[in-house]
Amino acid sequence: MSSAPLGLLARDSGLLWHPYATLDAGAHYAVEAAQGVRLSLRNEAGTHGVIDGMSSWWSMVHGYRHPVLDAAAHEQIDTFSHVMFGGLTHSPAVELAERLVAMAPGDLQHVFLADSGSISVEVALKLALQYQHARGHGTRQRFLALRGGYHGDTFAAMGVCDPVDGMHAAFAPPGREQVFLPRPPAARLTAKGQWESDATELAAWEAAARNIAAAHAPELAGIICEPVLQGAGGMYVYAPRALAILREIADEHGLLLIVDEIATGFGRTGALFATEWAQVEPDVMCVGKALTGGYLSLAAMLCTAEVAEVLGDAGEALLHGPTFMGNPLACAVANASLELLTGGGDPRSASAPWRVQVSALESGLREALAPARALSCVREIRVLGGVGVIQLSEPVRVAELTQAAVRRGAWVRPFRDLVYVMPPYIATAGDLSVLGAALVAAVGEVHGD
To answer: Which pTM value belongs to this model?
Structure first.
């Protein structure tokens, strides 16, 4: 058995930063192989075969080494892997934009291809500011955002994340401080497909939201939110009606509604895009993560024809241009990934592959995580589409719980008081059973039941 991965762990330590970690934290496992829904991990305790409950941070929806995506990457490499997008175009980018417009809700007709989800948010915010300026509203330079929200780690994106409980409280807000609405009331989608939330709480939230928006309207350019599911802000599910209220507020005050579908897009919540739970059509939408099936970093910002026309009539260029914008290799893989999701047919049909897969994930996760309700340390279990959450009554002991889950065949990345999974769409009923059993047992072992 090779010791090379152990050498990698030692070489990594103190050399590489890992996400949200100190330099000396290092990595705890080295990846030896990945196939389908499984990772082969190795550390000083040996080799561990695990199911990836994280889909590599929610992106690897088709699993690892998928033959269709592998073939798309090889074919594009054999043609050309990159070319600048300034003044040039190519088939993979045009095809991808056409696919996205065909899939997107409402009148989203124009596409900006970005390097990452966070950058797509930056572009969306820039677009909103330019849009208001072109309309003669140059004083509209702030955004209305939700408490509990997360939109990325770059500076403008940090500015619209939760300013207190988010990950960026240590940083001064870039530019002008944004305006924040209270977090909308929680909701749950029942196994029968009905949304449940507290009507009194929702009415109180609506009144507060409308009052705050009215008080700041002359200085606001837009509203930004994660629709229905706030991811890194706590895997928090809120009432779809709140999203519809934000649409009404935007229309009332001449604001752009920007929806961040980076984590929720392409079926993860059980709708193709989470905005559809509220039957809301956004002015601007950001997508990423699952876009390439987790193979390469790529995101997109889409906007309506009306928004694009305002800039066009003013003769304004959209002022952003990444070096790797429209990377043909990433676009080719994204096209193959979207083809897998839709099966080449109507992406909203009951028989679309993503819908069949996510429906199976939802029922499988409900069953697999249900035993956790018997644990006294568990506060709540919630499932939405391909998202399963065990919320504890205390902060997760992350390192201990991760190790306990790995020993039982599951890779998870808990945070705050949450042990959650977003498995690849191709996970089978057996995979979900193993994943659920591992999480329930690990929570019981580490947190006292």
So the answer is: 0.95
